[in-house]
Hints:
It comes from Rhodocista pekingensis. The chain is an alpha+beta fold. It is about 35% helix and about 30% strand. It has a 5-stranded antiparallel β-sheet, covered by helices on one side. A 5-stranded antiparallel β-sheet has the order 5-6-7-8-9, with helices on one face. β7 and β8 (about 120-125) form a beta hairpin. α1 (about 50-65) crosses α2 and α3 packs antiparallel against α4 (about 165-180). It is globular and about 80 Å long. It starts with a strand and ends in a 9-residue tail after the last helix. The model has no long low-confidence stretch (mean pLDDT about 95).
Amino acid sequence: MTYCLGIKIRDGLIGLSDGRITSGTQVSAARKIVMVGDGDHRFFVMTSGLRSVRDKTLAYLRRDMAQPGARPLTTMLEAVSAFTACLRAVAKEDKASLEESKLAFNLHAIVGGRLRDDAEPTMYLVYPEGNWIEVDERTPYLSIGATTYGKPILDRALRTDTPMATALKIAYLSFDSSRFSSADVGYPVDLVTLHARDRRWREAQFDYDDLIEQRHWWNRHITELAKALPDTPWVDRLLPETATDPS
């Protein structure tokens, strides 16, 4: 399992992926977000599912983009179409043999960026069959993997006009909620951003010790907020009169 999150706001794009790999009792780390393309004319791909399917699909995509005479991808629609074509080629080659081995052909992907002819950044969620949906302004994020625990804070706090600095904090809290409640999600966490102001990609990786301050701050304040929540209507009905929390 994994946790990958893509956010589209007016300031630009954010991509986040956890780095934990689990296989039985073995735990290791691997980067699940990759940049495809050259220079600033790049897009990210984040995946959840079979690593072999992911690696082969990306290898085919890079091969096709590097072919002599290949036309450069100039829009994200072209980029996601190229990715899904490679995914379908891999499915045609490997799906039957995987299913014979009792393995489902499983790869979900988030593909995002802004290429030369795009009016604005965008992202797509790709399904194992090769079909896709585009991120929507009303729900400005896409997530794959262990999505259950990180979704509530995104739905409550994230809006299209959320500043990127705040959206990065919300993305972290979404990851931290997933990490806290799912043994298959964990550090390191990889982040990429594309700001609309300069159209420049920035990348960073953080491990457990890098985010101690944020983790302790959130744990402390979420407890304090729970204590500060108004007591009515349930305290008067459900607790003895002297059992009110003194804090």
